[in-house]
Every structure is written in C-alpha cells, then in structure tokens.
Amino acid sequence: MTSSNQTAWGHAWGRLTGSARRGGDDAPAPFDRTLLLLVPGILMVVLLFVYPFAYGLVLSFTPAEGGPFKNYVEFFSQSRLWGTIFTTLWLALPSTILNIALAVPIAFKMRVPFAGQRLLTTALVVPITLGTVLVAEGLLTYLGPQGWFNRILMAGHLIAQPLQLTHNYWGVMLSLIITGFPFAFLLILSHVTGIDPSLGNAAASLGARPFAQFRHIYLPLLAPGLAMTFCLVFVQAFSVFPSAVLLGAPAGPTRVISIAAYEAAFESYDYSMASAIAMVMGAVQLIIIVAVLVARGRFYRGPASGGKA
Amino acid sequence: MTQDTLKGNPALDRTLGLLWSSVVWGFMGFFLLNMVGIIGSVAVNSVATRWLRSWLPDGYTFRWYSSAWAEFQLGEVLTVTMQVVLAVVLISALIGVPAAYALARREFPGKRAVMLLFLLPLLVPPITYGIPLATTLYQFHLGGTLTGVILANLVPTVPFVILTMTPFIEQIDPRLEAAARVFGAGTFSVFRHVLVPLLAPGILAACLLVLVRTIAMFELTFLTAGGDSQTLVVALYYSVFAAGVRAGQSVDAMAVLYMLTTLFWLVIALRFVDPTQIVARVKKQPKGA
C-alpha cells in the first residue's frame, strides 16, 4: 500500500463519517476514533468464529494420513457417514414444513391484538427458553409407555397398546415440533403484524373472501418473512443434537449428522474428520438456504405497508 | 377459481369462519396442554416416591432434591453456571454496546460487510461452528476450562447485543450528544452522562435476553466444557444420557431446578421485553427515549 492510498482512505472515512468537519478546523482528523469502538467486537468474531471456521476448513483437508480429500472421500463412500445427511434431512425437512404450515394460519388468525395475546406468546416462549435438553427429558416421561399421553389415549379407547413414541424417529420429530413450532409461530407473527391490515380490508371491500385475501394479498407480502423463517427453523432442525441422542435411536434411525461429527471429534479424536463433517453440515444448510432464497426471489417484492407511509 | 372466491355467501362464510377459529384455537389448546403435560411430568416425577403404572405417583417426597444436590454436585454446577452467565453478560455488553454505537452513528466503507460478520454467528447453528471452535480452543489449551466456555458463549451473544442495540441507539437523537459536546463533554462523559442513562432500558433488555439464552445454551458449553466447567444444562444432559445409573426422580429434581432457574430469569426478562423479541430480535422498539 502506498501512502497516497492511505490518505485517500483517510479522506473517504473522514468524509463519510463527518468527523473531519466536526473535529475542529485546525486539527486534521483523518480517522474517526468512534470506529475504534467496533474493534473489540470485530476482533472477537474474527478470532472466535472466522478463524476457527477457516482453521476447521484447512484441517478438514489435512488428514493425519492420506491425500487432502481423504476425509471427504471417506465421508461420501461410507453409508454410515453420508447416510446421516438424509437421516437428518428426513427429520428436518418434514418438521420445518409442518411447523410453518401450522404456524402461518395460526399467526394469521392471531395477527389482531386480543386479550391474552401476551399470555399466549409468553406460554409459547417457554419451550424455546427451556431448550431441547429439558424438552427431551420431559418427553421421555410424558410420551413413555406409562406416560400421561399414552394413558389418555388408552383411557379414551383410541388405542389398545401404548404407542412407542420414544427412542425412535417419532420422539425426535415430536421434540422438533415442540421447540420448532413456537419458534416458527413467533417469527411469523412478527412478520404478519408488520403487514398493514388496510390492504386486506381493501381486498375485502372489493369482495375478496378470507381465503382469497390470504392467497392474493397476505401470502405474497409474507413471502420474504416466510423464506427467512423457513431458513432459521430448518437450520435449527438440521443441527438437532441433544434430542436425537436422548429421545431418538442415536445408533440407527436418528443418527443425525451432528452425532457423526461429535463422535469423530470426541470419541475417535479425529478432529480432521470432525471438521470435514462439520463443513459438510454447513454446506448442506447453505444449499437449502440458497434454494429457498432463489425460490423466494420468484415472489412479489415490495413494501408491506399501505400506500401512505 | 377467482370467480368462485369473489362470490360471497355470508351465512356460509360465517360458519366456515367459526369452524376455522375452533380449529386454530383447538390446536393451540392441544399444543399448550402437551406443554403442561411435559413440564408436569418432570415436576410430578421429581417429588414422587415411586411412579410406575398409574396416573399419579404412590406417594410424595422431597428427598430427591437433596440427593440430586449431592449426587450431581449441584452446588458446584450452579456456581460455574453463575460465573459463566455473569461473565458472558458483562463482556458481551461491554463489547457489544460500544460497537452498536459505532454502527448506529457512523457510515463507513465496508459497513455492510461488518454487519454481515455480526449476523453470521447468529445464523449458523452452534453445533456447526462449535466443533471447529472447540478444536481451536483445545489447540490453545483453553478447551475444557471455564475461560474456554465463556469465550465460546460470547460468539453468539456479542453479535446478539450489537444487532439488538443498533436500532435502539439509532432512534436516540444525535443532537443530544452534540449538545453535550457543545458544553465541553468529552467522549467518555457523553457516554457516561448522556448515552448510558438513555440506553439503560435497551441495555437491560439485551443483557436479560443474553442471560436467558446463555443459561439454556447447550451446544457450545457441551462442546467446550470439561469436568469442572459444566453448566446446569450440560450437567442435566449428562444425567439424562446416563439414565438408569441414577434414579429418574433424581434427574427430574435437577431438571426442575434448571426449569426454575430459567423461568425465574424469563419472568424478569419479560417485564422488559416482548415475548416475540426472544426469537425475533428487537422489532418493536421500546417507546420513549
């Protein structure tokens, strides 16, 4: 870098931040000291997030033995490793779609403030706050063969034998709904309440019935919020870990990709392989997110408020 | 299709609307009932003498709490949890609030890149970056230590504070600071006497949200904690994982203690923030200021 380059930068910064103007006429202030406040934050994210990620990426290409791609070749040639991608997708995609499909109509119904709305949203925040470990422990008792859930179904003569809902696919699926549905609902609710209701009223005054209002007015306006919610809920479901171990069958049907990564790191102490699996996990999440955002790009783009600002 | 939807039949619409309402409320009721069942199962089991093949336990006792306290060394675990949570809240506020101030008040080249940098740790799930992060921390001999756990927990919380506080600071009139400067206040006194009092409600809300999130943060603590740096949620995981080694009631007694800790802070946090803010960062900005 030449010195002229540095002055040009200083000028640009000073001009953009307005510090040169305010900083007094006699003292040239090429650098705005307020920006130094950002340094600790940036340093922290770079050292504890970017560096580990980059280090993990490099590590994944430098296995203890074999060529640079050995980990990835091994991952994609062993069904007990690559299979985890589909095991995880098979849990994450249905639960995400279901959670959003349930959350949209309900959030839509509850977009108008009503008595008890705060109480309801508070109740829904509880499972999110308690987290997956506690929900898993609760579900183990509640859904167990002698738990209240099966007892109620049997007392109502809906089933003759207790349903097997723990230590299998369904246990993990239900835990993903218990924590995922409130998350999807609250995210969508915050988007739905941002849509000006006068738009729907305008459509109604032209004779649009509720479903038509939803289909032609709200849904297009909701598309960006839905895409964002889908990404967040999916990413969370795809990285399911504690409930897949505690409530599922971690050796078989719910051996999700995070379990494979964890085993590589903390049971085989093969950090290179563990990093490779973590990178694959990130890549799959990225692919799904990009797909969702591309699909979302084909919807309406524009303001969600009424004509008047 | 469009023609159909435009033809209105008020009576039918009303019936359908009513049916729709009952489906929606019915589902909500069902969901909340299951929530109560889950939490209730844990709570009832934690005070049960024996509970095998019946709706309710044979008898009730509190002895599981004292045995859980001793078995799981909950005194130590709670101390560690408090240390981690306090350190994480303090450090993320100290780093996050000034950074949020710079982002709210200044335009500079690369600002979008910096925003993205702070957004990424919140979008990437902890288990994905937790494994490379734990590897790095072990490389620097910080893995398994209290410092390592605190550092790992800062990764999502510092960006959280920054992204929560930035819109909050943007809505404070910059002329207040300018006025203070006119009267000769330096940067530090502007911060101390003008900004901090105005920002107090926002900082408090952000800190409480960080606190609640850190108590419940399982993945990062799990991946970086050693034997003597476990927080409550990680200790709970291990005890559920090793179910059968200890009495189920003892595990549930610990689960209840964890619930009480979390819900206590949640209730306090909800006095200052909207429930939706716990998942979707500050959307509705607090009025005033």
Question: Mind explaining what this structure looks like?
Answer:
The complex is a heterodimer of chains A (309) and B (289). Chain A has 309 residues and is an all-alpha fold. Helix content of chain A is 70%, strand content 0%. Chain A has one domain: MetI-like (MetI-like fold, Orthogonal Bundle), CATH 1.10.3720. Chain A contains 13 helices and no strands. Chain A is globular. Chain A starts with a helix and ends in a 13-residue tail after the last helix. The relative contact order of chain A is 0.11. Chain B has 13 helices and no strands. In chain B, helix 8 runs antiparallel to helix 9 and helix 9 packs antiparallel against helix 12. Classes of the chains: A mainly alpha (309), B mainly alpha (289). Chains A and B meet through helix 1, helix 3, helix 5, helix 6 and helix 7 of A and helix 1, helix 2, helix 4, helix 5 and helix 6 of B.
What keyword list fits this structure?
heterodimer, A: 309 residues, mainly alpha, disordered N terminus, B: 289 residues, MetI-like fold, 2 domains, membrane (chain B), ABC transporter permease subunit (chain B), transport (chain B), transmembrane helix (chain B)
Topology:
The complex is a heterodimer of chains A (309) and B (289).
Chain A: H1 3-17, H2 19-22, H3 39-60, H4 70-77, H5 79-109, H6 117-142, H7 148-155, H8 169-192, H9 197-205, H10 210-238, H11 242-246, H12 257-266, H13 271-296
Helix pairs in contact in A: 3-13, 5-8, 5-10, 6-8, 8-10, 9-10, 10-13, 12-13
Chain B: H1 2-6, H2 10-46, H3 63-71, H4 74-105, H5 111-123, H6 126-139, H7 146-170, H8 174-182, H9 187-216, H10 219-224, H11 232-241, H12 248-270, H13 276-279
Helix pairs in contact in B: 2-12, 3-12, 4-7, 4-9, 5-7, 7-9, 8-9, 9-12, 11-12
In short:
The complex is a heterodimer of chains A (309) and B (289). By secondary structure, chain A is mostly helical.
Strand content range of chain B: under 5%
Distance between the termini of chain B: 51 Å
* Topology, number of strands of chain B: 0
Q: Which second-level CATH architecture of the largest domain in chain B applies?
A: Orthogonal Bundle
**What Rg of chain A do the Cα atoms give?**
26 Å
Largest sheet of chain A: none
